[in-house]
Backbone:
């Protein structure tokens, strides 16, 4: 599944350290031509037959015109089979989601919207697995409070965010996702509970729940470091997360990944493909991919990163058809490490089947069933290894990053 | 000043008698009248050292309190005598080690031969540089053993400081000629008259003997050289005698192996000669001799009274024993008294961070200890840390400098355990007495601390500390000393506003942070030096640190009963800040025997999972996780608690580093 990337934003948000550029005038036609060309080249190299999902991220891809989205989708459909129902997500910003362009995106083929604050750096394409219904991602309204939005450096107001979500739900009913951000400097337990309630009144069937991370080099992190804003205490953050999990599950959401909740089966196909370690193809400046280069006769999964800087990226795409800056063949161990790290983020965990796909010789049981770290973690109630596979318990999911080093260390010794 | 006789000094070091009683001169007084350079600029020709008979030789050191300008004066002397060219870049020329330049201190003695014409006579002046810090007094004593006189440098602004006093007595007791020099007279607040009076009062040297100089600007430095020639006697020994060379220092060079610094107390030495070490009885052929200018400069020969270096195929670190006497094969001489080994005051365990590095660390230690023989090394092993060593240092700065040199010169990172001083226990248990074969043992490792039921008395080492301070800080300093269990022995006004205090300190009370505390409460004005003062009875206990009930071996400390509660509390608090949260609660406790005296609780993680993990984030994420997984190998496990190895060092670091 390709992941075209629109690296431009109108303004940089205070917490964002992604590969984004605030360029007043973008030569959209040129960028579009390059996205199309790179998608075609990479799909050809991968020889993927069928694409499960497409995810437009950025930057703020909703600032691009629907024509660009349509062009990329056409290119994808031309290079591989893109089933009619394939999930096509667009990330959107509340301020850039007035109804008219959204309708345009829908007409262009977008069928899922993710509305939010923090847009991810790289937007790769999903794997050629069983095709599922596609999804569009609109940008999530991190917050529904004007003061908080200002602190985050967001361009929109709470009212705008609310309107944006309503508009999106009208156009993409059941297929609109919103982002919720907690752990803002100074945010109290009560304030968070109120935000959560407001979000529940507004939301559709998918919520991404993020703890604000103070990334180095961002304006917000600098303010906290200077002491201009308070750093939220660890225990408070843990409380906020637990509260949200409990409330969301009680209102019918499935907590299907560390930060993602869905009801009525509205899981993000595209993102699931990352967590299941499927193949994905990154298109656009700074996009990441993981796929096998069958087109070159390859049989190893590669980690690929496209050139970061948009102008250089365009130049290279124009001259070589794609602008892959780095390609690294992943060893079998590295692939298993990624599978473990990502798979345990989901509620289904790592199934025996999926593990067997990457490790035909050594079963999950053989690696983690023997006395060692995993056994100890099972005994302490953080992990489960059974006929369904290896997965975290409810409690274990919240401390996964404390479990992983032990598990990786055990895996490395096998 | 008479030269005969050896004198007991601090650190238990004894200086050898520099030479036997004065006898006939070694050779006729053939002294060239013209001031010729003794070597050509081509550098090919070797020096002819026969031009410098004993009576034209002066061997001297510069001694001073730290920062009083010793290295600057040395730089000027090297320039005036044309040993180095005069540029603006000559700063600490003799301080070759990176650590010395970084810290502005001298750790390792260096020497340089200077050529100087005075009243038509060419003189050979051997300047033997000495370290300036109290930890390195042992090095000072060693350097002085090759000298007949010293330049005592005192800052015209700061006046006499604690180390000035200590260094003066080192030189005085060695019966060396002393040339008092008051430096930094160019400074605005310089008060040379006052300093002259201090010198008169404390050292009984007439005020008119002091030379006022500015080493920085070169003022009167020439006068210092003239005084060196007039006041310091030449070494008294003969080239006609059989070879007798004192090894007063040695360095290890990766290409040329051992380079020994030698002072000739008789005879001559040249390439090709067969020599024998009095200590090891091993025979060597001399490959090269020369002088230090300050870099090695080969010469044809070295003659009685001269100071230089020797390379003789000594490969093993143990071969060039400092204090050893070298003589010609089949012409044995009475060895010089040599040195007692330096007495370590501070011990700490040293372990490789990774046991696979054991052999590399071992060879680095061997090489570094050759250049620093005052470090004692015993093999040791710990359940927790694996195979390692118990090292003895002269003081905490010495320990830090040693560790820094390991890192800088050998690229080694190590784990150091809590520093401890050598305690003693008088045993009462017949079983233990039998086991040790004696009724008094020295404890350099808390793991060996015998419990009070098998001991009739514990003893702790003490030092006599000298503090010199402006009088306005006296109150605070007295409080500090009392807090450190010190007993006042003396208090003397050295002028109207400067006081010298003498206190008897338990050594362990000053080992870690006393100097820093003293400096900070006196705004940097008080100075401190100390000397060994034997042992005293003490109420000692062993304090353990427990994590969830399991003792942490690296943190076990022997401590005075009165101090246990405060120290235990502090350690627990620091550990709480240092140990990362884990999946379960961790009780951090300090205990004496079974009694818990302090406790902190580290709460478990309730949430530890990165919020976002999508396509682009994975590579970076995996890198971090792999590093953490790799780190598991280096984690120290105490029961089920994982502690990063560097946590202990961070905990033990002095308070001011926090």
Residues:
């Amino acid at each position: 599944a390709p992941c075209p990337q629109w690296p431009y934003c109108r303004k940089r948000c205070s917490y964002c350290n992604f590969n984004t550029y605030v360029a007043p005038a973008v030569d959209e036609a040129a960028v579009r031509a390059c996205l199309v060309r790179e998608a075609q080249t990479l799909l050809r190299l991968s020889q993927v037959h069928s694409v499960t999902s497409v995810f437009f991220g950025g930057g703020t891809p909703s600032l691009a015109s629907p024509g660009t989205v349509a062009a990329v989708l056409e290119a994808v459909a031309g290079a591989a089979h893109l089933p009619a129902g394939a999930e096509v997500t667009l990330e959107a910003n509340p301020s850039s989601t007035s109804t008219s362009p959204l309708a345009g995106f829908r007409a262009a083929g977008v069928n899922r919207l993710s509305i939010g604050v923090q847009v991810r750096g790289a937007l790769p394409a999903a794997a050629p697995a069983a095709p599922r219904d596609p999804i569009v991602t609109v940008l999530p309204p991190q917050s529904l409070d004007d003061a908080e939005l200002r602190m985050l450096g967001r361009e929109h107001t709470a009212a705008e965010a609310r309107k944006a979500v309503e508009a999106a739900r009208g156009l993409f009913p059941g297929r609109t996702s919103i982002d919720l951000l907690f752990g803002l400097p100074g945010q109290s337990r009560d304030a968070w509970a109120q935000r959560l309630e407001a979000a529940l009144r507004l939301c559709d069937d998918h919520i991404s729940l993020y703890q604000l991370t103070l990334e180095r080099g961002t304006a917000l992190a600098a303010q906290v470091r200077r002491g201009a804003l308070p750093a939220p205490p660890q225990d408070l953050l843990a409380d906020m997360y637990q509260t949200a999990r409990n409330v969301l599950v009680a209102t019918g959401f499935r907590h299907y990944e560390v930060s993602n909740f869905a009801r009525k089966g509205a899981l993000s196909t595209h993102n699931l493909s990352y967590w299941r370690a499927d193949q994905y193809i990154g298109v656009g400046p700074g996009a990441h991919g993981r796929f096998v280069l069958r087109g070159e006769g390859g049989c190893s999964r590669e980690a690929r990163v496209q050139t970061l800087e948009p102008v250089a990226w365009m130049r290279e795409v124009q001259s070589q058809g794609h602008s892959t800056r780095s390609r690294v063949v992943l060893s079998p161990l590295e692939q298993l490490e990624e599978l473990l790290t990502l798979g345990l983020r989901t509620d289904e965990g790592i199934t025996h089947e999926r593990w067997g796909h990457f490790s035909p010789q050594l079963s999950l049981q053989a690696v983690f069933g023997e006395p060692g770290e995993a056994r100890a973690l099972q005994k302490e109630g953080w992990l489960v290894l059974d006929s369904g596979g290896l997965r975290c318990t409810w409690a274990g999911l919240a401390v996964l990053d404390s479990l992983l080093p032990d598990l990786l260390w055990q895996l490395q010794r096998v | 000043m008479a030269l005969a006789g050896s004198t007991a000094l601090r650190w238990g070091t004894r200086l050898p008698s520099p030479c036997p009683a004065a006898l006939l001169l070694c050779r006729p007084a053939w002294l060239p009248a013209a001031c010729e350079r003794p070597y050509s600029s081509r550098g090919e020709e070797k020096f002819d050292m026969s031009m410098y008979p004993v009576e034209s030789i002066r061997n001297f050191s510069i001694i001073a309190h730290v920062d009083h300008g010793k290295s600057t004066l040395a730089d000027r002397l090297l320039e005036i005598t044309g040993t180095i060219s005069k540029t603006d870049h000559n700063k600490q020329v003799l301080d070759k080690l990176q650590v010395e330049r970084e810290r502005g201190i001298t750790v390792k003695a260096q020497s340089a031969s200077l050529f100087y014409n005075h009243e038509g006579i060419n003189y050979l002046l051997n300047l033997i540089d000495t370290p300036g810090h109290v930890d390195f007094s042992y090095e000072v004593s060693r350097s002085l053993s090759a000298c007949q006189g010293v330049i005592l440098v005192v800052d015209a602004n700061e006046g006499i400081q604690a180390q000035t006093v200590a260094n003066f007595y080192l030189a005085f007791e060695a019966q060396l000629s002393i040339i008092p020099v008051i430096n930094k007279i160019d400074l605005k607040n310089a008060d040379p008259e006052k300093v002259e009076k201090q010198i008169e009062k404390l050292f009984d040297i007439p005020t008119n003997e002091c030379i006022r100089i500015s080493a920085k600007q070169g003022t009167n430095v020439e006068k210092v050289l003239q005084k060196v020639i007039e006041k310091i006697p030449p070494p008294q020994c003969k080239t006609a005698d059989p070879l007798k060379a004192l090894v007063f220092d040695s360095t290890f060079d990766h290409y040329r192996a051992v380079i020994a610094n030698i002072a000739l107390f008789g005879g001559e030495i040249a390439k090709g000669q067969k020599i024998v070490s009095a200590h090891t009885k091993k025979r060597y052929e001399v490959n090269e001799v020369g002088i230090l200018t300050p870099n090695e400069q080969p010469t044809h020969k070295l003659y009685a009274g001269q100071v230089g270096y020797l390379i003789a195929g000594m490969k093993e670190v143990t071969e060039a024993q400092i204090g050893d006497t070298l003589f010609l094969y089949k012409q044995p001489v009475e060895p010089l008294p040599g040195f007692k080994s330096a007495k370590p005051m501070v011990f700490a365990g040293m372990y490789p961070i990774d046991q696979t590095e054991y052999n590399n660390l071992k060879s680095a230690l061997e090489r570094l200890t050759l250049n620093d023989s005052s470090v004692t090394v015993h093999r040791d092993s710990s359940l927790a840390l694996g195979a390692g060593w118990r090292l003895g240092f002269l003081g905490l700065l010495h320990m830090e400098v040693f560790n820094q040199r390991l890192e800088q010169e050998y690229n080694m990172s190590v784990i150091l355990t809590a520093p401890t001083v050598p305690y003693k226990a008088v045993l009462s248990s017949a079983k233990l007495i039998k086991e040790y074969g004696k009724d008094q043992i020295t404890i350099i490792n808390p793991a060996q601390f015998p419990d009070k039921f098998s001991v009739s008395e514990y003893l702790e080492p003490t030092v006599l500390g000298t503090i010199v301070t402006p009088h306005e800080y006296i109150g605070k300093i007295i409080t500090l000393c009392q807090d450190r269990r010190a007993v006042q022995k003396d208090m003397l006004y050295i002028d109207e506003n400067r006081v010298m205090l003498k206190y008897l300190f338990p050594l362990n009370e000053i080992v870690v942070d006393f100097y820093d505390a003293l400096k900070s409460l006196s705004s940097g004005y008080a100075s401190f030096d100390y000397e060994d003062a034997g042992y005293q009875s003490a109420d000692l206990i062993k304090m353990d640190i427990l994590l969830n009930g399991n003792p942490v071996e690296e943190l076990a400390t022997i401590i005075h009963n009165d101090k246990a509660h405060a120290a235990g509390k502090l350690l627990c608090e620091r550990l709480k800040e240092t140990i990362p949260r884990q999946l379960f609660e961790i009780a951090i406790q300090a205990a004496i025997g079974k009694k818990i005296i302090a406790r902190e609780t580290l709460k478990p993680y309730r949430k530890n999972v990165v919020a976002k993990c999508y396509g682009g984030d994975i590579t970076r994420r995996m890198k971090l996780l792999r590093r953490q997984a790799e780190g598991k190998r280096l984690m120290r496990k105490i029961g089920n608690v994982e502690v990063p190895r560097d946590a202990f060092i961070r905990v033990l670091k002095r308070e001011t580093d926090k």
